[in-house]
Amino acid sequence: MLCRLESWRKNSFGWMGIVLLSVTLVAGCGENVEFSNPFDKEKKPAAKQDAKPASQPKKQDQKPKVDKEALARQQMIKQTSLRGGGTSRFGESGRSVGANATVGDNVFRMQKEIASSVDFAPTMLVWVVDSTVSATELRDDWAKAAKKLYSEFDKNGLPSGKPPKDLATAIVSFGEKANFVLEEPTSDFQEVIASIDKIPRDDSGKEATFDTISQVLDKYGPLKSQQLRELLVVVVTDEAGDDWQNVDAVVEKANSTGVRLYAIGVPAPMGRMVAEVPPGESRSDGQMAMIQGPETRHSQRINMKFSSGGFGGEDVDSGYGPFGLGYLAYQTRGEFLVSRLRSAPWPGSAMRFSDEVMRKYPPQYLTEQAYQAMLAENKALDALDRAAGQGQVEAMAYPSSQFVVLDEARLKNALDGAQRIAARLEPLVNAVYEPLAAGEKDRDKIQDKRWQASYDLALGRAAANKARVDGYNQMLAILKGGRKFEDPTHNTWKLEPADSLEEAGSRLEKMRLQAKQYLERVIKEHPDTPWAYFAERELEMPIGWKWAEY
User: Fold this and answer.
1) Which of 143, 243, 416, 526 is deepest in the core (most CB within 10 A)?
2) Residue 18: what pLDDT?
């Protein structure tokens, strides 16, 4: 080794080589070459940079800009759809994959959010709790978990060793009006625990949810600024709120306040304001007792009963919270935490589908103005919105179908009576079908998967029911016009369901094929979804009629 060093020292070219090699190592072999320190285990690979170094951005500018609507499609609004147990009719692939979470589980999920907020800055936490009768079980579960949470804070201190003063808590209950139970935010955890039991019960059955949230923002927003605190608001409720239409104004106020809002509640019935199950409370003003949905700003599901009957209900767990609270949580960077209660009627045994599948079909969290602008740009979407707003259409499940020919007069009377069934249903079906058919030319312009599935299912179901009703009426008219038995010993005509309407005319046969095309497309393009389930159910009943003689 000494000989080699001596040789290098005597050779000037050798030293020049060392210098050049050193310069090369320092400069790198190009702008994309990086030398990593093998001892620096925590260092992550650096991203490619431009040749010209950019100026150092401010800390708040380092957060990438995110398109909110695109984010909604990538995740279920961070909603932990903690549903458990049940399976869909699609078997293994349609099984609910969510954990079986309770309200208490979600309260302790909030513990992580509280810890993160307190670690960042002193925090003010406001619990906004539904005090109506229907929310009794949810409220009791919240109270039990919240007491345990604050007992842990009192015993073990706040996370990261923060002092108790870094978390101040207020409690507000609501029903018909807001009630400030623990009005002055306190860091005395025992006082918080004692206040939880002071929430009064509200027997009105009314939920001024968004008015209460607005009052909370008005009251605690200034304190947030004065005390230099973060503000977290957690709404605990089993309903959508009677005043959820005011959500846009509340969102605007929340964003100007700088609040992060969370909600702990139950999933919305898919496409419905109310579930089929009996409500858990009553009201004396004639209004709907319990509004728990829909999950979209306006319903995108037509209200048409099924002709096939059967034992399956029409309630479907949407996997998302009611629109107003879900939208407010999304806009304020919070979460809607879906909980399942032990004994509450909703969602109970409602049909539910895989979270993994339903994440691909998130609602669009748009303002009312943006929503209406979207409808104005697409006739198919506008048609679905109008069709979904129609009243319930009863199914023609068990129409008169057997006609004994004793004499012409009695046969005519029987047929006239049967046709009155179709005459009663026809305008109701037309009110749903006609706008959907008129908007069909814009169907292929729809890009959103939820809207595609919803429109196709609606048009398919509406066309199927119109074909059945009009086809029934036409087949009776054919018999009334005179029809001879092929077997002279027969004296009874029976109208049976069939996969054809050719005898009723080409127009109705074309409508039958239209219905089948749209329903089968839903099943093919949206497998293992509620839309596919309803399409299959509609197809259980043949879309057509035929005469049989006996």
Assistant:
1) 526
2) 37
Q: Which amino acid is at 152?
A: E
Q: 296-327, pLDDT tens digit by residue? A: 999 999 999 998 755 456 899 999 999 999 99
Cα angle, residue 352 at apex, residues 142 and 348 outer, rounded to 5°: 45
Neighbours of 394 (CB within 10 A): 13
Looking at the DSSP bridge assignments, the partners of residue 167 are 123
> String of b and e for 282-314 (b: at least 16 CB within 10 Å)?
ebeeeeebbbbbbbbbbbbbbbbebbeeeeeeb
Q: What is the DSSP letter of 278?
A: P
**Does the pLDDT of residue 22 top 90, yes or no?**
no
| pLDDT > 50? residue 121 | yes
Q: pLDDT tens for residues 322-370?
A: 999 999 999 999 999 999 888 888 888 889 999 889 999 999 999 999 9
Residue pair 412/480 in contact by the 8 Å Cβ criterion: yes
Please list the helix, strand and coil fractions of the chain in percent, rounded to the nearest 5, in that order.
Answer: 50, 10, 40
What is the arithmetic mean of pLDDT over 375-399? 94
Direct distance between the N- and C-terminal alpha carbons of the chain, in angstroms, rounded to an integer: 114
Q: Partners of 174 in the beta sheet?
A: 130, 178
Asked if residue 532 lies in contact with residue 270, where contact means CB atoms within 8 angstroms, the answer is no
For residue 175, give the amino acid letter: G
Q: Rounded to an integer, what distance in angstroms lies between the CA atom of residue 360 and that of residue 112?
A: 27
Provide the pairing of β-strand 123-130 with 167-174. parallel
Q: Is 407 exposed, middle or buried (0-12, 13-18, 19+ CB in 10 A)?
A: exposed
Whether 93 shows a pLDDT value over 60: the answer reads no
What the block records as the tokens of 482 is 């005179």
User: Are the C-beta atoms of residues 293 and 238 closer than 8 Å to each other?
Assistant: no
Strand partners, 79: none
